[in-house]
Amino acid sequence: MSLALKYRPKHFNELVGQESVAKTLSLALESGRLAHAYLFSGLRGSGKTSSARIFARALQCAKGISATPCDSCPSCAESLQGSHLDTIEMDGASNRRIEDVRGIIEQSKYKPSLGRFKIFIIDEVHMLTKEAFNALLKTLEEPPAHVKFILATTDPFKLPATILSRTQQFHFKKIPLKAIVAHLKLIFEKEGVDYEEPALEMLARSGGGSLRDTLTLAEQAISFSNQNVSALATSQMLGLVDSRVLEEFFSALVAGKSVENLLQSLAEYDTAMVLEEMARFLKEAMLSQKLPSGVLEPFMSAIAQAQPLLNYGADGDFVLALSTLKMQASLQQPQTAQAQPTQIATPKTTHQAPQPQQATPHPQPTPTTQALQTAHKNPAQSTRPPQADPKELFKQLIAKIESTNTKLGRVFRELLVFKSFDNGILFLHSNADESASLLLREHYKTLIVPCLKEVFGANARIETDKSKPKPLEQFKENNPSLMQAMQDNLGTTDGKVEDC
């Protein structure tokens, strides 16, 4: 028997990480405040179906309704074996038609034969068809007194509002990492398996908050490591990057050393997993202060920008190399920014006796002084060099957008024409059609504006003018056959219908 089935909870106090749900259901059973329909929603493997079975067994227990069923009466014994006559479980994915729901409605008319209630547990209820939901509405709202419904789903947003309003809803949260690790320790000790705690943390992270998924991986790790679950064996089995390699990689980046060999080592793993492990390492480094706080934000930003590129189908090695270059560039920027003020010498103030005023010629302003005066008068333009050519900046803007979104960059390159840049306004001529305009509007705030401010200045904005075809030209383009017929009937030889 698998670990997930062997250690499936049989009472509310055995639920892992769902204390609030267990407490609420237990108090409802003890006080007798029972609803006619319940909805359990949450992540897969979080305990929804197990809680539904415990709740149903507590309702059917021959010794009375309580939060702790006796597990010894005939009703509890059959419930534990999954063969109780009055507790009907069905899968909404395979019984999703209106005919299946009509069968439930027909069964609900008959009183229970062994237990206290007729209980229907419908798993993955969001898979039911619209017609099936409509057929279930009336019975779900006003069922017979001996009928209880327990619905379970991983996607409650797919359920109609009419169903949600007829049920008591319980959300099963993602199980915390510490709770899963503690549960794994308990199971491994009962199974007599040797383990290292970092290995259990790897299994818990890979399970993604699902206890069932974690136990499946744990069982695989026990077989892979021959009853001795070590951190090295677990990382090899899961394909995870060794934390020591990541620590060496980021330490070399901060120290300005070469990371070529380390980058080649990371390229052997799945790029998405490498980025995920990098993000986790930086999060732990932030809490433990392993790395300087000033590098954490640009490093995390580079990783966040790299993950969408994989969704667009970019090569994994290229994405990893690009992220490394961005991290290296972020380390050089503060040094450049700090070096600029040191070029300007500030004269020391000394107290001297007043001297007779003499006419002195005004010194000619140096390029540095002119740049400082310009930046002081117009802070919006101080983020870029005063001598920068707006056309070259527009090319930089296109390249920056294209590196993040290839399709959007192609629209900028092919359909938008630079006209001028004046007073923080970038004037463009647009030849974009309806689909291109929709793409521009969709990414304007999230991508275009940040890139625009980075290249042209903090207060820069875009204005466009879109040429519209003349009515006759548009008519010609949309009705070529009709135009040809008109030319034939009018007998024109030069093709100029407008002259006729």
Tell me about this structure.
With 500 residues, this protein is an alpha/beta fold. It folds into five domains: 170 residues, P-loop containing nucleotide triphosphate hydrolases (Rossmann fold, 3-Layer(aba) Sandwich); 62 residues, Helicase, Ruva Protein, domain 3 (Orthogonal Bundle), CATH 1.10.8; 93 residues, Four Helix Bundle (Hemerythrin (Met), subunit A) (Up-down Bundle); 77 residues, DnaA, N-terminal domain (GMP Synthetase, Chain A, domain 3, 2-Layer Sandwich), CATH 3.30.300.180; 33 residues, no CATH class. 54% of the residues lie in helices and 10% in strands. It has a five-stranded parallel sheet with strand order 2-3-4-1-5, with helices on one face. A three-stranded mixed sheet has the order 8-9-10. A two-stranded parallel ribbon has the order 6-7. The termini are far apart. InterPro entries: AAA+_ATPase (IPR003593), DNA_pol_III_sug/sutau_N (IPR012763), DNA_Rep/Repair_Clamp_Loader (IPR050238), HLD_clamp_pol_III_gamma_tau (IPR045085), P-loop_NTPase (IPR027417). Its EC number is 2.7.7.7. It comes from Helicobacter gastrofelis.
Throw out a few tags for this protein.
10% strand, 22 helices, 10 strands, three-stranded mixed beta sheet, DNA polymerase III subunit gamma/tau, metal-binding, alpha/beta, Helicase, Ruva Protein, domain 3, nucleotide-binding, Rossmann fold, Four Helix Bundle (Hemerythrin (Met), subunit A), 500 residues, five-stranded parallel beta sheet, DNA replication, 5 domains, zinc, disordered C terminus
